[in-house]
Amino acid sequence: MNNKQIALISFFIAILITVFMCFFIHTEGNYLYSKIVGESTIADDPELVQALQVAKNHGVIMGIHGWKHENYLELTPGQAKMYVEKSEEVFRKIGLQPDLFVPPYMITDFSSSESVKQAIESTGVSADLSPYMQGVVCEYTWEWKNMTSVNDPRFKIALGEIKNDRPNVIMLHAQDWNPYTKQLISSYLSSSDAKNVTIRVDDISENTPKETIEDLTKLTQYKSVKTTIFAIIPASLDVQEENPTIIGSTIKADDILGVYFTFFIITTQLPIIFFLIWRCLSGLRVEKCSKIKDDSKYPDLITAIISAYNEERSIGKCLDSLLKQDYKGKMEVIVVNDGSKDRTAEIVHQYPVKFINLEKNVGKANALNRAIKDAKGEILVFTDGDSYVEKSAVSKIVQCFMANPDVSMVAGNVRVNPSKKGMFARFLTYCQMIEYKLDQDIKRYLQGLCKQVVICPGSLTAVRRKVCEIIPYSDETIVEDADFSFTALKNQMKIIMHGILYGIISVFLYLVFIAPFFVRDKKLLLMLMPFIMTYEIMVTIVVSYIYVYYLTGRGMKIQFGSRLIHAR
Fold this sequence. Notes:
With about 575 residues, the chain is an alpha/beta fold. It has three domains: about 5-40 and about 240-285, no CATH class; about 40-230, Alpha-Beta Barrel (TIM Barrel); about 295-505, Spore Coat Polysaccharide Biosynthesis Protein SpsA, Chain A, CATH 3.90.550. Helices cover about 45% and strands about 15% of the residues. It has 18 helices and 15 strands. The chain has helices at about 5-35, 45-55, 75-95, 115-120, 155-165, 180-190, 210-215, 255-285, 315-325, 345-350, 365-375, 395-405, 425-450, 465-470, 480-490, 505-515, 520-525, 530-550; strands at about 60-65, 100, 135-140, 170-175, 195-205, 225-230, 300-310, 330-340, 355-360, 380-385, 405-410, 460-465, 495, 555-560, 565. Strand 8, helix 10 (about 345-350) and strand 9 form a beta-alpha-beta unit. The chain is elongated and about 115 Å long.
């Protein structure tokens, strides 16, 4: 298969995976989250727990009202038993013993599902409500949670009904308890001459304020009240928020959110998955540049050019690495000293290389253009004075040129040396190492397959001489390497990479897809999570800071060599 076919196959697979991700998150997201993070329960609210314990001491019967208010008529006996056992565990955790099972969505018991009732009672919790629910069950305050005045027609109607009905069983819902519900129920209980009134309060959950529990507990003090039952939902409810309709249409608000969610998945995860799959599949068939066995096939001469500015600490190591290359052909080395004020020139004089000493700092671009004029090689290899060139780098680059006659430039594979001291400095260095590795192992690798590498790093780039005759380095930018690459691509030149680059993706995809790229760099693998959580945030803050300066027009002064650039 050629590269285009692999790309199409990768894109098709990425679409399938993205569709599966959307479906999985939509159907199993909440369940997966609860398994990983854990479910919130009433035990997480100490004040609520204390209020329930006080209620228990006042004789309130504690009932299990489902695990998350499930409809038990729709569950299998096994599911019903599992939920009750989970509820019992929460009750025991907060020091309560469940006395009763109060089925959600049902006024009395499981007359229509005896098998479910038996499964629940097999846990030791009674599901028989008949001793407590004798007579007609009456509820007068349903959906009173938004009531704001006793002048509400619902209050007046309920007040008349409760006086006429004189109920023995009153059902309440915790979410409807408010001053008006309290006034209605208290008024009836204080005036009633009955002695056997049962108060059943459903839907007590972690969202129930402790003050509501305290008020409801006080109902046990009325002489007319014989039994008070609290039907408690142990786990956090999957609250169904209101889903309003957009004015003038039938479109629901949740539908719009669903569209945004799908758009987010498509625009973020799909490209990431596509590039990763493309990278992995391409790696299975990539053709290595064949080694040159016949010395006659080497170029007549290649030139390595080093631009240096105040590089006394590293220029020696850089030159040593170049002079110890395993390349068998002829190679000359040119060092251009861009007005250094330290011992750079003194150190370079100790090596058998051609030396160009510029008295004034003219900038890297002009320094490179000056060196190019003296270069005699067919292939020019550019590197920096603070870089170290791997022993086989030059030979591999030349092999790429020989194997690809239509290629004008070859980008090197850059790695960061973790030599800095200090914990914070080393942390930033390791983060930069990860950034470079991901950048080159994925993104620039794929660009190379298309022979359109966007940025050739200044620390290691090789070009055919004809490229420099057409495109000089520009001193109008501080990113001359990127500008040089862009201009080459505009001129229809082909650029490849020997080796393999970076993308910011989600934590899950890092661990699943990216980790294999770090098998040989276990220290970097350990740094993946800190890199994701810290370094990318730092980069975002810095970039945002610079962008704000740009938007406000304040600009920023940048020291670049001997020049001070005022960027606006």
